[in-house]
Amino acid sequence: MRRTRFLRFSGWISGLFCSCLVGMASAQGLSSLPAEVTRAWTQTKLPESSLSLVVKEIGGPRLASVNPTEPRNPASVMKLVTTWAAISQLGPNYVWRTTLLLPKGVQPDEKGVLSSPVYLRADGDPLLMLEDVWRLLRELRLRGVKEIPGMVVDRSVFGDVAVDPGAFDGASDRPYNASPDALMIGFGSVRIVFTPDPVNKTWRSFIDPPVPGIEVQGNVEWVDGSCQGFPPVVTDSALAGGNVRFRVSGRASGACGEFAVYRLALTQQDFAARVLRTMWEELGGTITGQISTGTVPPGAVPFAAHESPPLSEVIRLINKRSNNVMTRVLLLTMGAEAGKRPATVQSSIEVARSVLQKQGLAMPGLVLDNGSGLSRDGAIGADSLTALLEKAWQSPVMPEYISSMAILGEDGTMRNRLREPATRLRGHLKSGALKDVRSVAGYIWGASGKRYIVVSMVNHPNAHNARAFENALMNWLARN
After folding, report:
1. Could you tell me which residues come within 8 angstroms of residue 442 by beta carbon, excluding any fewer than 6 positions away?
2. C-alpha–C-alpha distance, residues 11 and 5, integer Å
3. pLDDT score at 242
4. Could you tell me which residues come within 8 angstroms of residue 13 by beta carbon, excluding any fewer than 6 positions away?
5. Where residue 348 sits, what CATH number does that domain have?
6. What is the reported pTM?
7. Which of 227, 281, 363, 380 gets the highest tally of CB atoms within 10 A of its CB?
8. What pLDDT is recorded for position 241?
9. Contact criterion met (CB below 8 Å) for 99 and 129
10. Cis check: omega of the bond before 209, within 30 degrees of 0
11. Can you give the CATH number for the domain in which 154 is found?
12. Is pLDDT at 83 greater than 80 in this prediction?
């Protein structure tokens, strides 16, 4: 009897030990994945140590887990953290207000001349576009104002948050490197438009907005034949005496029709000042002095304001289009709205971490950096990101958050992936890519009706090889 009990007890211990070993192997390996997915990983020729992976059924078990606690650089997938913290803190209907004010009692004289500068209170609107600024200034003209002695922009909602656009990768004219600012107009970038002249078989180019001090030189060569995708034009910029010259070159088929590229030319403050002056003059107004940075005086009276779209719409642009500078401004807004004015990156990170911690999201190893993922230092574990995505699924603002992600095979950064009928539309995901980084995270709707969270992050010099593995992983879940 004693021997029988011992054998049963030994068998139970042995089975428990084996189960733990299987669990440990699953946590450290790819064996729990189906053959087609493991084959896709093998074909990347990447070491398993470069991968952090979690696949989990929502409300159910984990299907796979590889290096889940190892902090990795997630590239733009970090935007999922920032946008979740923001919508949790600020709510889906939060809006930014950009306001024009005048000192109390100031009115234009009979000739439309103001004796005082106009004040513009910037609120950090990440989606303030040229047409929005035009409407604001038009309100001033509608009130009979023709001439102003100057304009003062109040940026005090943020501290000194400017960054060098060339610091990350040396591409200082690329919009993805734009610096955040409390008054960011059109993301701070100009549009270089190329319009075809079929009669003379030449391309003409111009700058929008047509602010002084920015011009285009050089030519794009006209070629006949069908359009083979976006024309591979080259733009080189040079700064001289405060002016910027873009030299353009390359070839483009006339069949492509008009197209445009976006480039950074000036600092956010300089660009905003030139845009404000240009638009005021286009509206028939005159400005005799400078556009400077300062503060709104006590008692100033607002007479016009622009409200941004609600946050739920703003994060759709951030996540679907992976807009870096909008994310940076959103992070700073969290700090400002928590009373950390003037907001800095560090104070705003502290606010974001506090929001997450109050939800039980400890996030060990999280390095939020600038919040956008455009960073060599950003880091998060797959376990932490999975917990965040599960928490979001259970939230009242789940629909707004999930709809901000790109739809698999349909739009955003996922529009060209897995477009087959069996997989298209079955995922809401955020992708990320940097040199040495590939990542994807979000939700997959399986054919069985089950819902899955997937997080995959690869950090390796050959991380770009992981795209096919990501596709195989998403394909398996969508069909499962």
Report:
1. 80, 389, 405, 427, 428, 429, 430, 453, 454
2. 10
3. 83
4. none
5. 3.40.710.10
6. 0.92
7. 380
8. 83
9. no
10. yes
11. 3.50.80.20
12. yes
